[in-house]
Write a structure and sequence with these properties.
The chain has 364 residues and is of the alpha+beta class. It contains ten helices and 19 strands. It has helices spanning 8-21, 38-44, 69-72, 88-98, 115-124, 134-142, 146-168, 176-189, 249-268, 275-286; strands at residues 25-30, 50-55, 61-64, 79-82, 105-108, 129-132, 193-194, 199-202, 221-227, 229-231, 234-235, 238-244, 298-300, 307-311, 324-327, 330-333, 337-340, 343-347, 351-353. Strands 4-3-2-1-5-6 form a six-stranded mixed sheet, with helices on both faces. α1 (8-21) runs antiparallel to α6, α7 (146-168) packs across α8 and α9 (249-268) runs antiparallel to α10 (275-286). The radius of gyration is 23 Å and the shape is elongated.
Length: 364
Amino acid sequence: MGILETNIMKIKEIKTLLEKKKANYALFYNLNSLSTNPNMFYFSQYSGLGALIIPKKQAPLLIVPEMEFQRAKKGNIKRAYSMDKKKFFESIHNIIKKRKLNSKNIAIDNNNFTLNAHKHFKKQFKRTKTKDISLDCLKLRQTKTQKEIQILKKSCDYASKILKKTINQFKSLKTEAEVAAFLEYESKKLGLDISFPPVVASGSNASIPHHEPANKKLKKGFCVMDFGVKYKGYCSDITRTIYLGKPNKKEKEIYNFLLNIQKNIIKNIKIGNECSKIYENCVKDLKKYSKYFTHGLGHGVGVEIHELPNLTLNSKDKIQENTVFTIEPGIYIPKKLGIRIEDTILMKKRPINLTKIPKDLLIV
């Protein structure tokens, strides 16, 4: 069985969704060996090439190339079929016909269905009507099962330990690129992938929220490090800002001002809170620095680094129990400085911080 047997209950939920949408089955696919279809992985624990079919009334099935057959059987879908050597959607169509599945109405994920793939799909499924379930899948993935929470806790624990080790080794690292490489190397040593390319931004570079690490000497001033790993397919996300050199009184005040805002936001979050209101309260608390806060306050975390809920101005999302999301306020004064403090939060009866590195300003 796969690592997330509990996600079988989510398959039951998608079957209920298919009833409401009057769709005969859901079709997910992956044609890129270098990437993963998040929904296909979520429901099957299989990340390779192939297709996942979730019928309304039958057991789900995977259709994969012969070379992936053994790997597919390790997931939580018991029925796996090898493709013949025909074209991708032609092979899928033939297996679906053999399984006697009605293809009149199919639910697909438009977010992960390319125009080119759709063209080939329509050659085989000529009389099929498709219904988009991309947003439905995102909503379904928003609340985590207990098994998912265990894995996300472990992912955050790994990310915290690796970032802490990096900070402890900081004096031996000379460039932003070297810091980023150290983070990636330590992840690979543990058999982990990174959730996203690490951000390492020192000095004036820290005023660019998604600065790409440069192969140049680390600059004095604030240094922002944004990092996460993938453990068993689940992401983590943490940002810490340290200071290289000797901060002046004003810089210490700005850092502690932002830190107190971040702590208070986390402490005051409650189930049912509107995400847009949480964002608005952050902007109010930032006062004169609000014009230097240039991105959302946070985002959901799961099999993708950005999931629901979105903690932004126009978000319609609400905080739900068993949701995992980030809180990451920042202050970015162009060409001068940048500070971001980010933690991954699990919402239970109260918010629980999963990323546990001290947040008081560390001076290197």
